[in-house]
């Protein structure tokens, strides 16, 4: 190759290399990747409580209502009939002998009046015969028999008349009235009116299940509080009937009620207490003093275990099996596994 051509080739190669080097210097430089910041893990927090010593009380708390100990169910027993008039309403005070329901008489009132006059006439005639010294014995005997006959007629009509009226057997307050209107037919032994004695009251406390009151016995004391017109008063009473002491009955509804009801007799009724008023009742069934106890939310159950989680040195979680005793609505007695001051983690 001629010397000139070699020089030209070398010069061209030098230019290409220079351009390549220059081009690389014009490209942007990559930034170095930053290291991720170091984040300290958040400190886990727990809601805790210290196991403490104190008293624990197991009680039944609920709302009860006042009802009468003595009630009378008014119903026709002789015969039914059509209603002429309903004479009372719920909440009305009645006296013994007051008419509650009147059936259609079918002229019985007129017949009774006529027979009453016939009886008086027979009695008057008998009196005249007896005072007449010349009266024959046969005439006197006939007058006596006639008077007896008229008396029997009167008594029968009076019974029929009375059977057309339903009267109150006691002084009291009407607590139930069947929905009746004139012309309605009522059967014998149909409950039409219930009258309650407002001077003899007790408290009725019903529960959802008999298991809730199985530990209550007759004689247990009860604390009662009633409120009326912004005024509150407290008094005491005693349990007088439980499901186990309830009387036997063939009435299915009543038997079911007895199975879920406690009856409480107040020691002394406060003033202005009425049938149907509500009261707050507390009955203590069990209590112990100076026991280790924790809130119910601190106890855990899993796979047959009963345990708590404790916090040691403020950071270490530890599961401890425990034995429990009494359980109230808010607290649990711990017999074994914890001591006073142990830090318990709540759920």
- Largest sheet: number of strands, sense, barrel closure: 6 strands, antiparallel, barrel
CATH architecture of the largest domain: Beta Barrel
CATH topology of the largest domain: OB fold (Dihydrolipoamide Acetyltransferase, E2P)
The coarse overall form would be rod-shaped
CATH class of the largest domain: Mainly Beta
The total tally of domains equals 3
Q: Can you walk me through this structure?
A:
It is a single chain. The protein has helices spanning 3-26, 108-131, 137-162, 252-259, and strands at residues 48-50, 52-68, 71-74, 81-86, 93-94, 99-103, 165-167, 172-177, 185-186, 193-196, 201-206, 221-228, 231-241, 261-266, 278-295, 300-302, 305-312, 316-321, 323-327, 331-336, 343-345. With 347 residues, it is α+β, with helices and mostly antiparallel strands. The protein has three domains: 48-56 and 288-345, conserved putative lor/sdh protein from methanococcus maripaludis s2 fold; 62-69 and 198-286, Efflux pump adaptor protein, beta barrel domain (Elongation Factor Tu (Ef-tu), domain 3); 71-193, Beta Barrel (OB fold (Dihydrolipoamide Acetyltransferase, E2P)), CATH 2.40.50. The strands form four sheets. It has a six-stranded antiparallel β-barrel. Strands 1, 16, 17, 18 and 21 form a five-stranded antiparallel sheet that branches. Strand 19 and strand 20 form a beta hairpin. Helix 2 runs antiparallel to helix 3 (137-162). The longest helix is centred in the middle third of the chain and has 26 residues, at 137-162. The radius of gyration is 47 Å and the shape is rod-shaped.
